C-alpha cells in the first residue's frame, strides 16, 4: 500500500505520494509495436540512422520517466526485426520482405545494448502463428514459415495463419525462441493474445489436423483440442526458456476476459471460448512468470470493469506469479478519447493491490506516450518520480 495517498485520486491527478519499499519493485513498461509501423520505425523507408535515432528517443524518454522495461515486437508475422538464422527480414523494417537492412544492422542487438545502459529490461515479443496480416499483399520470402510448412498455412480473415495443432509448427516456434535467447541478452520472451485468430464468423480451417488427432486415438472435442494445442505451446516454451537460460522471464498478455461471467459482472468476448486460450490455467499452473491481461477498459463501467477484472485475475495467481495489467493509453486518442485521469486512476488502483501481486503496468503503446497525448508524460513523471527495479521473481 502507498504510505501517502492524495485525498481524491479522480479530482487531483497530479498529486504526489511516496512509494514504500514494496512499490520500489514495480514493472513499468511499454509495448513497442512494429507491425504496420505502429510505434517503430515510423516508416520502413527511413534511413538506418533515423531508425536508430527513433529507438534511442523512446529509450531516453523511458529513462527520464524512470520506466524499467520495454516489450519489443521482434516477430510480428513469421518475420524478424533481428538477424534471424531461421526467418526472413520483416517488411516493416526494410520495406521489402526478406531483404536485409542497408547498411546492415540488428535492431534487437541494438535495443538490448542501449536499454541495458539505461537499466531497462528488454522482453522480445513474438507472435507465434500469424503469418501475414490482412491488407498485406507482399510476396512471402522463400524461407517464411508459410512457405516451409505450406500444409499448415491457411487463409483466414484475409490473413495467413499457421495451424496451432501442428506439432511441426509448435517445434519451429520453439526453435525460434531458442535462437533468440541463445544469441541475445534479452530479459524476457513475451507473447500477446494471438494464438488462434479472432473469428471472422467462419470456422477456422484446421479440420484435417483435428481428424488426424482423432485417427491417432485422440478423444478431446474440437474446442478442448484447440485449447490443448495452445497449452502445449505454452508448456513447451516455458520449459525451453528456463532450461536454456533459467533467469529469462516468460510472459503472456492475453485478452483481458477469460470467460463471460468471470467475475460475475463481466460480459464480453471469451478468450477461453473464442480464442481457445485457457489463460487462467497458465497462472494457476505457474506456466508463465508474469501475466499481462489486456485490461483495455475503464474502471467504472460494470460490464468490462478494469478494477473488477484486475481483482479477479490476481485471485487466480495461486503460485505467486506476477500480474502486470495492460493499460490502453491508445484510448487517449480517437473515438474513445479517454481522459488521462483514467490511466492515472488505473495505476493507483494497481498499486493498491500490490500486496496481492499486481506489481506494475504495461502501456499500449509507445506512440501515445512519445507524442505526450494529454500531457501523459508529466503524469507518469509524477507517478514514477522514484526509481524502481522490476519485481523480483524468487522462483527464477
Q: Key terms for this structure?
A:
disordered N terminus, GHL10, 396 residues, alpha/beta, GH, 33% helix, TIM Barrel, three-stranded antiparallel beta sheet, 13 helices, nine-stranded parallel beta sheet
Q: Please estimate the helix content.
A: 25-40%
**Residue-averaged pLDDT, rounded?**
93
Radius of gyration over alpha carbons? 21 Å
Write down the CATH class.
Alpha Beta
In the CATH hierarchy, what is the superfamily? Glycosidases
Principal-axis shape: globular
Describe, in plain words, how this protein is organized in 3D:
The chain has 13 helices and twelve strands. With 396 residues, it is an alpha/beta fold. The strands form two sheets. The chain has a nine-stranded parallel β-sheet. A three-stranded antiparallel β-sheet has the order 4-6-5. Mean pLDDT is 93; it is low at 1-23. Keywords: Signal.
Summarize the structure.
Keywords: Signal. The chain contains 13 helices and 12 strands. With 396 residues, the protein is α/β, with parallel strands linked by helices.
Give a topology summary.
Elements: E1 27-32, H1 48-64, E2 69-75, H2 91-94, H3 107-117, E3 121-126, E4 130-132, H4 145-148, E5 153-156, E6 159-162, H5 167-183, E7 188-191, H6 207-215, H7 222-244, E8 249-252, H8 271-274, H9 279-284, E9 290-291, H10 306-315, E10 322-323, E11 326-327, H11 340-352, E12 360-363, H12 366-370, H13 376-383
Parallel strand pairs: 1-2, 1-12, 2-3, 3-7, 7-8, 8-9, 9-10, 11-12
Antiparallel strand pairs: 4-6, 5-6
Amino acid at each position: 500500500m502507498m504510505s501517502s495517498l492524495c485525498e481524491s485520486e479522480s479530482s487531483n491527478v497530479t498529486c504526489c505520494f511516496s512509494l514504500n519499499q514494496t512499490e520500489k519493485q514495480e514493472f513499468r513498461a511499454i509495448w513497442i509495436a512494429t507491425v504496420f509501423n505502429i510505434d517503430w520505425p515510423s516508416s520502413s523507408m527511413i534511413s538506418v540512422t533515423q531508425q536508430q535515432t527513433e529507438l534511442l528517443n523512446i529509450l531516453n524518454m523511458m529513462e527520464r520517466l524512470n520506466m524499467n522495461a520495454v516489450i519489443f515486437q521482434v516477430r510480428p508475422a513469421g518475420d524478424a526485426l533481428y538477424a534471424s538464422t531461421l526467418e526472413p527480414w520483416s517488411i516493416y523494417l526494410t520495406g521489402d520482405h526478406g531483404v536485409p537492412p542497408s547498411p546492415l544492422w540488428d535492431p534487437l542487438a541494438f535495443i538490448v545494448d542501449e536499454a541495458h545502459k539505461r537499466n531497462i529490461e528488454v522482453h522480445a515479443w513474438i507472435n507465434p502463428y500469424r503469418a501475414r496480416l490482412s491488407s498485406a499483399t507482399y510476396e512471402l520470402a522463400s524461407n517464411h514459415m508459410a512457405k516451409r510448412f505450406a500444409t499448415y498455412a491457411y487463409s483466414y480473415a484475409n490473413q495467413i495463419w499457421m495451424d496451432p495443432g501442428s506439432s511441426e509448427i509448435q517445434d519451429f516456434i520453439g526453435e525460434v525462441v531458442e535462437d533468440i535467447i541463445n544469441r541475445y541478452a534479452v530479459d524476457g520472451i513475451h507473447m500477446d493474445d494471438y494464438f488462434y485468430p479472432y473469428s471472422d464468423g467462419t470456422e477456422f480451417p484446421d479440420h484435417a489436423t483435428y481428424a488426424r488427432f482423432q485417427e491417432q486415438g485422440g478423444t478431446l472435442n474440437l474446442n478442448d483440442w484447440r485449447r490443448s494445442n495452445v497449452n502445449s505451446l505454452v508448456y513447451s516454451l516455458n520449459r525451453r526458456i528456463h532450461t536454456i537460460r533459467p533467469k529469462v522471464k516468460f510472459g503472456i498478455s492475453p485478452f483481458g476476459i477469460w470467460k463471460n461471467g468471470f467475475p460475475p459482472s463481466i460480459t464480453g468476448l471469451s478468450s477461453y471460448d473464442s480464442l481457445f486460450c485457457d489463460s487462467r490455467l497458465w497462472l494457476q499452473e505457474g506456466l508463465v512468470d508474469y501475466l499481462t491481461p489486456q485490461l483495455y477498459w475503464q474502471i467504472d463501467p460494470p460490464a468490462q470493469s478494469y478494477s473488477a477484472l484486475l481483482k479477479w485475475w490476481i485471485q487466480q495467481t495461486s503460485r505467486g506469479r506476477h500480474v502486470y495489467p495492460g493499460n490502453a493509453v491508445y484510448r487517449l486518442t480517437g473515438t474513445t478519447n479517454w481522459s488521462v485521469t483514467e490511466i492515472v486512476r488505473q495505476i493507483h488502483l494497481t498499486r493498491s493491490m500490490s500486496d496481492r501481486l499486481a506489481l506494475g503496468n504495461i502501456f499500449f503503446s509507445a506512440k501515445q506516450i512519445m507524442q505526450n497525448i494529454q500531457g501523459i508524460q508529466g503524469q507518469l513523471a509524477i507517478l514514477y518520480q522514484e526509481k524502481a527495479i522490476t519485481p523480483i521473481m524468487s522462483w527464477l
